[in-house]
């Protein structure tokens, strides 16, 4: 049983980081960066300190960086929209969508800690997220689209294995049937190319590309984040 | 031309755990016991990464044979710097009976399939202390072997390896492709931090079965029993040399 709540971690172990990343300096987020000693200790020690083994929400992943930058740079595309951010993590993209003028933003993540982190981070940026959801949308997209008025779906870097890529592909197909505009970030993962792009081909285009410049996230295999739209 | 390396990693009971033999003597208790990457395999992984950092290697593939939990060990290898991982699934009774020869066949099959230039393994696993896999892989592939390596230098498709042997240090040169096993003093491995572990969860992990590789993993050795070493008996103190001599005579030792 976990003894430390997510709130505890956000308040005591992850101080707010202003200019959270080079690509999106507009955001202040309680995330783990290399300026935090927890970044540098062996992972078992970090997991013990955080009392969790899978804190995706404690990082500002390149996918989120790219999406956030795109949203803030293309306010005309976002203004007035009803946005659903699936797998919101720390909430950066959801927050950026609201900052960019979205009418309504739903932050979704199957990890409830991510929703707590998103709420905390939204507050740090003087933003209010309209709704939080922990539904497993990949397993039941129809229900989510029927329950809520959504006209834009934003998806971070989630196509990292074949099974997930297939689920994301199906989600995009259903979203299109509901005339929901899709924005997806991908650094060049094989499963995205071979499954999602392979199927959707002419129905999706790469509209933008950002370099991954943060030392914290530089990986030998990926150099840029691509933003795809339907 | 930068080489491609296959590194074998084994998930073994952590070195700090106090081992308990099962009451029926059929093995040791593994349920709920802390496991981690075999320490010699950590050294092998570290050596592979250093070769990649020196741009001598261009790709590191990590492989592990065993149950689903092996994926955690493979994630650690990915977090440390391996490019992709292969999990050969062997579970249940098959895993209990998985022996070095079978593992060697699996690793050899993958090495051929992936067309690697170098296989790096730990010299032995700390659970069975077999010290066989590296040697048998070399035999199965008819590749040269340099085992118990304490220093590795690779140049022009050859490896110059300093080996720790009973008489001291021996330096040999082997042509690639070859098998090298890591000994304790080869290097000091780095550790994986949390961000690298999370990043590794998105790196490619291929899964396959021994059947996919055309390997028969049936055991050839039968384990008869597992027993704890005899409990250490307490010693006694003597107050004088005379008492020592009489005690030794008593025990028939002099």
UniProtKB/TrEMBL annotation, chain A:
The keyword Methyltransferase applies. GO terms for cellular component: mitochondrial matrix. It comes from the Eukaryota. GO terms for biological process: methylation. GO terms for molecular function: protein-lysine N-methyltransferase activity. Pfam families: PrmA. The keyword Heme does not apply. Keywords: Methyltransferase, Transferase. Belongs to the methyltransferase superfamily. ETFBKMT family. This is ETFB lysine methyltransferase. It comes from Rotaria sordida. The lineage of its organism: Eukaryota, Metazoa, Spiralia, Gnathifera, Rotifera.
TrEMBL record, chain B:
Heterodimer composed of ETFA and ETFB. Identified in a complex that contains ETFA, ETFB and ETFRF1. Interacts with ACADM. It comes from Rotaria sordida. GO terms for molecular function: electron transfer activity. It is found in: Mitochondrion matrix. Belongs to the ETF beta-subunit/FixA family. This is Electron transfer flavoprotein subunit beta. Keywords: Electron transport, Mitochondrion, Transport. Its main location: mitochondrion. Heterodimeric electron transfer flavoprotein that accepts electrons from several mitochondrial dehydrogenases, including acyl-CoA dehydrogenases, glutaryl-CoA and sarcosine dehydrogenase. It transfers the electrons to the main mitochondrial respiratory chain via ETF-ubiquinone oxidoreductase. Required for normal mitochondrial fatty acid oxidation and normal amino acid metabolism. ETFB binds an AMP molecule that probably has a purely structural role. GO terms for biological process: amino acid catabolic process; fatty acid beta-oxidation using acyl-CoA dehydrogenase. InterPro entries: ET-Flavoprotein_bsu_CS, ETF_a/b_N, ETF_b, ETF_beta_N, Rossmann-like_a/b/a_fold. It holds the Pfam family ETF. Residues 25-217 form the Electron transfer flavoprotein alpha/beta-subunit N-terminal domain. GO terms for cellular component: mitochondrial matrix. PANTHER family: ELECTRON TRANSFER FLAVOPROTEIN BETA-SUBUNIT (PTHR21294), ELECTRON TRANSFER FLAVOPROTEIN SUBUNIT BETA (PTHR21294:SF8). PROSITE patterns: ETF_BETA.
């Amino acid at each position: 049983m976990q003894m430390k709540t997510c709130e505890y971690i956000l308040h005591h172990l992850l101080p707010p980081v202003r200019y959270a990343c080079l690509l999106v300096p507009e955001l202040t987020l309680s995330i783990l960066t290399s300026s935090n000693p927890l970044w540098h200790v062996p992972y078992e020690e970090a997991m013990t300190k955080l009392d969790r083994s899978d804190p995706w929400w404690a990082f500002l992943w390149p996918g989120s960086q790219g999406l956030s930058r795109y949203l803030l740079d293309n306010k005309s595309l976002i203004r007035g929209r009803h946005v659903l951010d699936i797998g919101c993590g720390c909430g950066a993209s959801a927050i950026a969508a609201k900052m960019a003028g979205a009418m309504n933003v739903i932050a979704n993540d199957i990890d409830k800690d991510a929703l707590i982190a998103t709420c905390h981070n939204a507050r740090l940026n003087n933003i209010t997220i309209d709704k939080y959801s922990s539904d497993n949308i990949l397993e039941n997209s129809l229900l989510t689209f029927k329950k809520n008025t959504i006209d834009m779906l934003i998806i971070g870097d989630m196509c990292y294995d074949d099974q997930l890529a297939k689920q994301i592909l199906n989600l995009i197909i259903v979203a299109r049937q509901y005339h929901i505009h899709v924005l997806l970030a991908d650094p060049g993962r094989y499963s995205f190319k071979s499954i999602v792009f392979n199927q959707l081909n002419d129905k999706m285009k790469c509209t933008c590309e950002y370099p991954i410049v943060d030392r914290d996230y530089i990986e030998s295999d990926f150099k840029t984040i691509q933003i795809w739209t339907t | 031309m930068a080489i491609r390396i296959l590194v074998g990693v084994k998930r073994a009971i952590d070195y700090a755990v106090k081992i308990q033999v099962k009451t029926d003597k059929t093995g040791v208790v593994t349920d709920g016991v802390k496991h981690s990457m075999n320490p010699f395999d950590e050294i092998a992984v570290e050596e592979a990464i250093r070769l990649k950092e020196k741009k001598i290697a261009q790709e590191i593939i990590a492989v592990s044979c065993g149950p689903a939990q092996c994926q955690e060990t493979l994630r650690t290898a990915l977090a440390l710097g391996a490019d992709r991982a292969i999990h050969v699934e062997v579970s249940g009774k098959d895993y209990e009976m998985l022996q070095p020869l079978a593992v060697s066949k699996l690793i050899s099959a993958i090495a051929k399939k992936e067309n690697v230039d170098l296989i790096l393994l730990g010299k032995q696993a700390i659970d069975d202390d077999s010290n066989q896999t590296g040697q048998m892989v070399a035999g199965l592939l008819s590749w040269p072997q340099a085992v118990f390596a304490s220093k590795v230098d690779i140049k022009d498709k050859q490896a110059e390896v300093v080996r720790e042997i009973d008489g001291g240090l021996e330096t040999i040169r082997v042509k690639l492709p070859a098998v090298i096993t890591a000994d304790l003093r080869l290097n000091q491995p780095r550790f994986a931090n949390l961000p690298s572990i999370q990043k590794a969860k998105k790196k490619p992990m291929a899964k396959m079965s021994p059947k996919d590789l055309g390997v028969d993993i049936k055991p050839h050795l039968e384990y008869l029993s597992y027993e704890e070493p005899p409990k250490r008996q307490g010693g006694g103190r003597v107050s004088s040399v005379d008492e020592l001599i009489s005690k030794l005579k008593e025990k028939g030792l002099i």
